[in-house]
Amino acid sequence: MADLSFPLRCACGRLEGHVAATHRAGRAICYCHDCQAFARFLGPPEATLDALGGTDIIATAPRFVQFTAGTEQLQCMSLGPRGLLRWYAGCCRTPIGNTPRNPKLSYVETDEPIVPPQVLTAAQRQALRAAP
Questions:
Q1: Which residues of 99-123 are buried (b: 16+ CB within 10 A; e: fewer)?
Q2: Sequence-separated (6 or more) residues with CB below 8 Å from residue 116
Q3: Which residues partner with 76 through β-bridges?
Q4: pTM for the complete prediction?
Q5: Could you tell me which CATH number the domain at 6-130 has?
Q6: 3-class secondary-structure state, position 72
């Protein structure tokens, strides 16, 4: 499988980066209450959630997520004292990802909307559709 890198960008373009080594990433749609609550925190939930209330996420190790511009825009919140750390771009309230509070659990879930389809190559779009 080809080692593809996918761009990350907030809606206004101030925060940019990429997810590398996507062959080591997993993909899922989460329908949990917390993901839906985070979407409401950010603004209109329909901007983040699919028609059934799900969030399309890509899970990978933090070392594969790199930011190249705008890290001063990164903001963090949590829905409770034991909840995930939920990262977003403060400039435009675009969801960026989730990380566990425990540093021994090394993973990050990035919200797929930060991978705008118009900046992907045809091969990257095909690989994203084929991801489990």
A1: beeeeeeeebbbbbbbbeeeebeee
A2: 7, 9
A3: 87
A4: 0.78
A5: 2.170.150.70
A6: helix
As a whole number of angstroms, the distance between CA 30 and CA 53 comes to 8
Contact 93, 43 (CB under 8 A): yes
Residue written as tokens 């400039």? Answer: 91
pLDDT digits over 11-45, tens only?
Answer: 899 999 988 876 677 888 889 999 999 999 999 88
Q: Domain boundaries in the chain?
A: 6-130
Kindly report the number of other CB atoms within 10 A of residue 25's CB atom.
24
Collapsing DSSP to helix, strand or coil, 90 comes out as coil
Residue recorded with tokens 């925060």: 15
